[in-house]
Specification:
With about 110 residues, this protein is mainly beta. The protein contains 1 helix and 10 strands; from the N terminus they run βββββββαβββ. The strands form 2 sheets. The chain has a 5-stranded parallel sheet with strand order 1-3-5-10-7, with no helix packed on it. Strands 2-4-9-6-8 form a 5-stranded mixed sheet.
Length: about 110
Amino acid sequence: GVVLKEVTGPITVNTTTGDITVVFGKVNQKSPITVSTLAGDVDVALPASTPANLVVTTAAGDFYTDFNFEMTNADEQAERRFGYNVKAKLNKGGVTVNITSTGNIYLRKK
């Protein structure tokens, strides 16, 4: 798997197999962030005060987070039979953060 620690971004991380762990020290607001794997779990830790436009997609896995946010596509998610497609603003929005996996996605406050 891939492990990145104390990164600021922008970053693009893609794997076909294996887990990805990214721990941000600070999130650069200039360019989008993309973290994706076809077969594995994704674990991302962001500073709690990070402003971001979040897009989280799992094909079959679950989505776990300790961030509080309101989904901007709650109706769309309610119609899905499996997986998650979550769009939300963290701390009133900011840089786009795309996280995609067929496995589980963990989004943690740092």
